[in-house]
Amino acid sequence: MTNFLFWNLAGKDLTKRIRRIADCHQVDIVVLAESDSSDDDVLLALNDKPQPDFYVAPGLACEKIRVFTRFDPSFLVLVHETDDLSIRMLSLPGAMDVLVAAVHMPSKREWDDKSQEFQCTALAQEIEYAENTVGHSRTLLLGDLNMNPFEPGMVAAAGLHGVMTRELAKRFSRRVKSRSYKFFYNPMWGFFGDKEDHPPGTHYYGKSVQKVFFWNIFDQVLVRPDLLSRFDVRSLAILDNDGIDTLVDRSGRPDKRKASDHLPIKFGLNLMMKGSIE
Amino acid sequence: MNKKSRKPQPGKAVLDMIDAKKKSRKPQPGKALLEVIDAEKNQTKDLWPDDIKTIKVRPPVVALEEQGKILGKKTKNMVLGRARQLRLPDATQFHFIFQIEAPTLSYSFALLEIRYGASLYPVQVKPATDIARELGEREDSWISAESEEAFLEILSRIFKAQRTRTLIGALLAQIEHKITA
């Protein structure tokens, strides 16, 4: 199993907590947004153990995403970047290649709903461009989308086209006005509310206005149908602790003072080919 | 010919009926009348100007693509600049991403975006965030150019930014390393 962690650090120095989560969940690939710590500091924290095993997987043009990996960085090849998007091909020996697209979309403070919708359309086209470059659609999109899974840009066919069940995503694509649009499966839909024992979102925002959701799921992972069979949906979790200390306050909301205003997410993919030894 | 395949012929009574029908048919317009109808048809006025032709303004994307080719020449086609159209729901504008590509590395990054309406100018340019910062522009803001000259001036500033040079230099170094490895 290849384990991923995504966390928007909100500019906080949380290097020790990243290391705890990485150890606790045996994370192989750490993706960070809003990281004001230097790559050196993060790396030193991740490798603060007898057998250091993490590397930086540097980007070139994308400043908003930082990637660290237990694998040799040459297994994580840059394919396409923009300001806030870094798309890499993960090619592990004995495993199937996958595209890993990590993004930090503009926040609701700076961009209105319509601009975010348009940006989703642009993002979908960037991902398709990268898929055409590598010749497959085994793609994983993770990051801080700064939108909830139900918002128009996230669900529209010309946007990210994220659907809430695997059964829907297995149709692979859908035609609208004679154009075909590929699906993403967005498992984050399942995290809303308090029916299960997990945080009801990754981000909390309350304001005295008419429309407010309080809990938002901005931090997400979306999976293309071609990768569905490899995605372990049970491994997906919104984390409310780092293995030792809590990341939430007494009300269960992200503890902005001691950690970030976003909670991290983690999940696993089984990429090994038949007959190979993990 | 096979007898069985022969089509049945109409009987005398049926032929008489056809003859009667032909005789009762209304008279058809003669040649002169047809010419009058044609003339009426031809009177549909052509409202279009006689001098429809391409305007003498280069679309901004053409200027951009030319610069992409120049970059290719300068780097022996190791690094290219290419414009790729984005199809956004806002169909009132043309929207392109200009990306720097290193085909041998299968890598590309978006250097800037442009968008413009049907009149081609003004064109709006949005450099990558770090380049915008270096040029003293607001991040995520669009810089407007009223003419091709102003557009080329903005492109020149973006291409000459230290960040752009570093990125292209890093790609060339990587390609060199790949060739010598």
Question: Could you please describe the fold and organization of this structure?
Answer:
The complex is a heterodimer of chains A (278) and B (181). Chain A contains 5 helices and 17 strands. Chain A has helices at residues 15-24, 39-46, 113-134, 152-155, 166-169, and strands spanning 2-8, 29-33, 55-56, 65-69, 76-81, 85-90, 98-104, 139-144, 162-163, 173-176, 179-182, 184-185, 203-205, 214-216, 219-223, 231-238, 265-269. In chain A, the strands form 5 sheets. In chain A, strands 3-4-2-1-17-16 form a 6-stranded mixed sheet, covered by helices on one side. A 5-stranded mixed sheet of chain A has the order 5-6-7-8-15, covered by helices on one side. A two-stranded parallel ribbon of chain A has the order 9-12. With 181 residues, chain B is α+β, with helices and mostly antiparallel strands. Chain B is 43% helix and 18% strand. Chain B is elongated and about 95 Å long. Chain B has helices at 12-24, 31-41, 60-74, 129-134, 148-160, 162-180, and strands at residues 80-85, 94-102, 107-116, 123-127, 143-145. A 5-stranded antiparallel sheet of chain B has the order 1-2-3-4-5. Chain B has a domain at 60-180. Classes of the chains: A alpha+beta (278), B alpha+beta (181). Chains A and B meet through strand 5 and helix 3 of A and strand 3 and helix 6 of B. Strand 5 (76-81) of chain A pairs parallel with strand 3 (107-116) of chain B.
Summarize the amount of helix of chain B as a percent range.
Answer: 40-55%
Percent range for β-strand residues of chain A: 25-35%
Looking across the biggest beta sheet of chain A, what order are the strands in? Answer: 3-4-2-1-17-16
Quaternary structure state of the chains depicted: heterodimer
Corresponding CATH superfamily of chain A: Endonuclease/exonuclease/phosphatase
Q: Which two chains touch over the largest interface?
A: A-B, 26 and 22 residues
CATH class of chain A: Alpha Beta
Helix content of chain A: 10-25%
> In total, how many domains does the architecture of chain A comprise?
1
Strand content of chain B: 15-25%
